[in-house]
Amino acid sequence: GRPVDPSFPLFHSISNVICAVVFGYHFSDEDKTFHELIHATEKIFRFAGSFVHQMYEILPWLLCRLPGPHKKVLACYDALSSFARKEIRRHVERGIPAEPQDFIDFYLAEIEKEAKPKCDEENLVYVINDLFLGGSETSSTTLYWGLLYMVVHPDIQAKVQKELDAVLGPSQLICYEDRRKLPYTNAVVHEIQRFSNIVFVGVPRLCVRNTTLLGFPVKKGTIVIPNIASVLYDPEQWETPRQFNPGHFLDKEGNFIPREAFLPFSAGHRVCLGEHLARTELFIFFASLLRAFTFRLPEGVTKINTEPVFGGTLQPHPYRVCAIPR
């Protein structure tokens, strides 16, 4: 029940899911290497979106020769790459089992199948970095926002807990399929994603042929950036777009309803490749946390900052909560 900043426990737990998928094992809380990976990841995301980062994107040939914070971030990325190479080497030396156990096993097995493979071990390093960076920061930040919204809206938190208690047995493990029996909890998770909107725009795309979009000509070679925020806060799509309202995903009978304008994973054929894993993680982690604890502001704290901090993702200002066992 003591005040604690939940950011590290959340990041640790989510990152370990990615580690299990990619490397085939978990890290312990005290593991020095894991702490270094988390520190490197946090530094990279804090740097992303900064003025120096924008300048580096425009003038990489110049800034790579100059001192500055980008040098430390590049060193962090090199540390992630070095760890990925060690893991690949460990898998190669161990040999690929008949039944691959993790992502690296599957990737190496595909390389061996092809006489002239399109991808190699060096490409695998960058894929692993993408999975680790993209799969840990985004989900943990969304959950970080989720707990913040629960202490700001204790009535919503209580309603989620009431549904969990009524539907699930005291010792029953929560699985992703349970979302069908927990419409309100599912709606709250979706509203956390919509309202926090941790990524304002999607990954840039390149137009491959001349086309027309809503009457506007778009030439081949044009860079197109999905404006996710404009959809998630569109007043024509949401009853109260600037308010946290789980009712956005419920009908009059309290049943969960999917919304076409719900696009936190971007749009088009190349949406976030980890969408299914992220949806599963968010639901199970959020429901499990609220089933086990009630989250409250520390004694004497009456206000909490809900404005975002800009970076690689939109994050909450650091905060502390009391997790009261139920």
Q: Detail the poorly predicted runs.
A: none
The spatial strand order of the largest sheet comes to 1-9-6
Q: What level of helicity do the residues show?
A: 40-55%
Structural class: mainly alpha
Shape: globular
**What oligomeric state best describes the polypeptide chains here?**
single chain
Number of strands: 9
What does the average pLDDT come to?
92
CATH architecture: Orthogonal Bundle
Number of distinct helices: 11
Order of helices and strands: EHHHHHHHHHEEEEHHEEEE
Q: Write the CATH fold name.
A: Cytochrome p450
Relative strand content = 5-15%
**What separation lies between the terminal Cα atoms?**
11 Å
Number of domains: 1
CATH superfamily: Cytochrome P450
Describe this structure in words.
With 326 residues, the chain is mostly helical. It has a single domain, classed as Orthogonal Bundle (Cytochrome p450). 50% of the residues lie in helices and 8% in strands. It contains eleven helices and nine strands. The chain has helices at 7-22, 32-47, 51-58, 60-63, 69-94, 103-113, 121-152, 154-167, 183-196, 228-232, 275-292, and strands spanning 3-4, 205-206, 211-213, 216-218, 223-224, 293-296, 308-309, 315-316, 321-325. It is globular, with a radius of gyration of 22 Å. The termini are close together.
